[in-house]
Amino acid sequence: MEFQIGGRLIGKQHKPFVIAEMSGNHNHSLERALSIVEAAARAGADAVKLQTYTADTMTLDMDEGDFFIEDSENLWKGTSLYKLYQEAYTPWEWHKTIFQRCEELGMLAFSTPFDETAVDFLESLNVPAYKIASFENTDIQLIRKVASTGKPMIISTGMASIAELADTMQAAREAGAGPIVLLKCTSTYPAAPDNTNLLTIPHMEQLFNCQVGISDHTMGIGVSIASVALGATVIEKHFTLNRADGGVDSAFSMEPAEFASLVAESERAWQAKGEIVYGATDRETPSLKYRRSLYISRDMRSGEEFTKENIKAIRPGLGLPTKYLDQFLGKRIGRDVSKGTPVTWDLL
């Protein structure tokens, strides 16, 4: 199921594809947005991802009822949806500049469209892939529109049931989608590790016959690293210059040093998976000589009986394996030997 995004190979035979999600962390500053791109490049990100919408394409301009966030547990409580998206959106006229800076720094850049007009706009910029957000993973019209481009789709699965994901996958494939990656996602901000359920990753891979990754809203890197061990090929994390600077997503975003650690440790986790192997590897072979084996531990004369005082299981491992000790005890040696002689069958 290996495929490419902009020339980057994605699959289990390759290190994880790590995406830095800028979202609204630019805080309405193009200069800061470009600084985020530069920091992501230094941290080793494979790609930077934006979000493409306006407040008007997301919701209605209302400050009451269903359109006002009253949930005391919500990170964005006390504001309307419209004002939240006004604060968080990335101006469309910035996209080209940001994408060009990513290219200059050797990174890929793409975005999450939230309606069909955003797809048309992103197509004009020739993005190499599309991301579907968890809250849009049941928007079948949007799924079909994105799939019709034939480009790779990365779909977050937060909140979606198996039946809903089946509908989404069917719609995407019937509409001509390119390769699809599903991202295990928990749609809380921040998310808790004990509500992440990473064992869903291999199950999802088998169920939908596609690559699976993670969109990780937890703090730290532990959850993302664990996902690699379970088969994740793509990791997406929100990224900011400094959480203390504030911003709509800053509370659950990674800072540059943390992101660099994620990139390095996810690659180590991928390398460590390896394959099913028993016995000494090529690199371990020199260490075999430091196993325990049977050695003569006292000078012995021909005809003397082997006892636990004159034959011992010790390091190094150049004598017979220790499992043969009982076959020597009580028998006699056939020639004179000195202390430190490795035990061989011809001593009997």
Structural account:
With 348 residues, the protein is of the alpha/beta class. It has helices at residues 30-43, 55-58, 81-88, 92-104, 116-124, 140-147, 162-174, 200-208, 222-229, 256-273, 325-328, and strands spanning 3-5, 8-10, 17-21, 47-52, 108-113, 130-132, 153-156, 180-185, 211-215, 234-238, 293-296, 311-314. The chain folds into two domains: 13-53 and 89-273, Alpha-Beta Barrel (TIM Barrel); 285-347, Type Iii Antifreeze Protein Isoform Hplc 12. The strands form three sheets. Strands 5-4-3-10-9-8-7-6 form an eight-stranded parallel sheet. A hairpin with a 2-residue loop joins strand 1 and strand 2 (8-10). Helix 1 runs parallel beside helix 10.
Give the N-to-C terminal Cα separation: 59 Å
Name of the level-1 CATH class of the largest domain = Alpha Beta
**How much is the average pLDDT?**
96
What's the CATH superfamily of the largest domain, by name?
Aldolase class I
Specify the overall morphology: elongated
Biggest sheet features: 8 strands, parallel
The count of DSSP E runs of length 2 or more, i.e. the number of strands, is 12
Low-confidence stretches: none
Oligomer: single chain
Structural domain tally = 2
How many helices? The count is: 11
Assign the CATH architecture of the largest domain.
Alpha-Beta Barrel
- Helix and strand content put the structural class at alpha/beta
Q: What is the CATH topology of the largest domain?
A: TIM Barrel
